Amino acid sequence: MLTTKQRADLKSQAVNEKIVGYIGKEGLTESVIQSLELAIKARELIKVKLQNGCDANIDDVCNKLCRELKAEPVLKIGSVIVLYRKNEKKKK
Asked: Is position 92 within any domain?
């Protein structure tokens, strides 16, 4: 669980991050989850955007992504979700 200070720090880092995954009209597919798994493993902090054609609810998508990726939600704003998962092997 992230503290308020950690979450605020991650939010400020997320401003400069590019979106690494898009969820379209197909919704949250297995291939999207697999690509996001690779991205979060490499980066720790990722941004995901729900495109206009996506009918899924942002809260439902965020909850499912957090479960599937074992990640913490940092921010949900508009149609963008920011997720964080600490990579124990990554050196700072």
From this structure: no
State both tokens at 22.
């898009």
Q: How many CA atoms lie within 13 A of 70 on its CB side?
A: 4
pTM for the full model?
0.91
Range of the domain at 58: 4-84
Give me the DSSP letters along 6-32: HHHHHHHHHTTPPEEEEE-TT-S-HHH
Dump pLDDT digits (tens) for 55-76.
999 999 999 999 999 999 999 9
- Give the DSSP letter string of the chain: ---HHHHHHHHHHHTTPPEEEEE-TT-S-HHHHHHHHHHHHHHSEEEEEE-TT--S-HHHHHHHHHHHHT-EEEEEETTEEEEE---TT---
Residue 90 is assigned to a structural domain of this protein: no
**Any idea what the CATH number is for the domain that residue 23 is in?**
3.30.110.60
